[in-house]
Amino acid sequence: MTRLLFVVSLLLCASSASAQQQPGHDACARDVTRFCRPVMNSGDGAVLACLKQNRTRLGKACDKMLTQHGQ
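Predicted structure:
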């Protein structure tokens, strides 16, 4: 879970200029922006909870990343 929270925090802090970013780091960036914007400044736990609440609406890449991290 700590690793997932780290990834989510990277998503929130990442800039579009980070071309050296590893694949998968931005798997949930669009979904966080789309569904969880109101809680983005409330911490990783709030963002993760939001992503879980919207699980059926998430993109395949984000859903896969959450599943791979036991969420």
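Summary: The chain has a mean pLDDT of 79.
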